[in-house]
Amino acid sequence: MKAFIQDCIEANKQIYEYINTHISSTDLENTGKLGFGGDKSLIIDLKAETIFINYLSKYGTIYSEESGYTNSKSKKRIIIDPIDGSDNLASNLPYYGTSVALEIDKKVIAAVICNLATGILTYKTKELEITKIDLRTMQKIDSLDIQDEKVAVFERAYKNPKLCQKLFDNSIKYRSLGAIALTLCDARNYSFVLFYGSLREFDIAAGIFMCEGLNVYRGDEFLIVAKNIYNFNLIKDTINKL
């Protein structure tokens, strides 16, 4: 497991350094093709995917948002979103990253999520609690324990105006940030996280693993995560009344 985490760190470090020192406008262009997950692929998506494949294919089957299965199937799967929030990256909006989950026999046992805008990488395994490091210094950093959450995050809010209106009617403050893996990674910092839309493994596998110990509801179209049970039930009831 230690070797897997280290290779994830090295892959993310390479992607982080490329984006911050060598990225060009060409990297942000569409390839003209849809990725396996259904979104348009940018050139940078494929470059990041290649880096992950080079580092991680030895650990099992790569299952990527961009290319689907990229090698022979085994009981071990590495589920990756090479660039989470690539539209943010292409818009110079500093909220984008990467997501990796290691799954054995359909159970995630390790996850690595990196915020490429800040250089903060987070990992967790079956044996290890959430750990954060700064890719610029390779030093571990302490996580803030936020007790008084100020805002929630509603990803893909634009797809559900009725629910947006309900949240407004209840004076619930939220943001829509555009990178679900990053958002789930820090779900403890928010009053709740709400995701609306198709729940693809690439988007949520690593993030859900990071949410161990929180209240989680996963339906056909909604994902709700909250530390506080009152907030969790409030949002769940609001959705059920739509």
UniProtKB/TrEMBL annotation:
One GO term of the biological process aspect: inositol metabolic process
Coiled coil: none
Source organism: Malaciobacter halophilus
Superkingdom of origin organism: Bacteria
Sequence positions that bind Mg(2+): 65, 81, 83-84, 203
InterPro entries named among the record's database cross-references: Inositol_monophosphatase-like (IPR000760)
UniProt KW keywords: Magnesium, Metal-binding
Gene3D superfamilies per record: Fructose-1,6-Bisphosphatase, subunit A, domain 1 (3.30.540.10)
One Pfam family of this chain: Inositol_P
Sample GO molecular function, one term: inositol monophosphate 1-phosphatase activity
Cofactor names: Mg(2+)
Name assigned to this protein: Inositol phosphatase
UniProt entry tagged with the keyword Ion transport: no
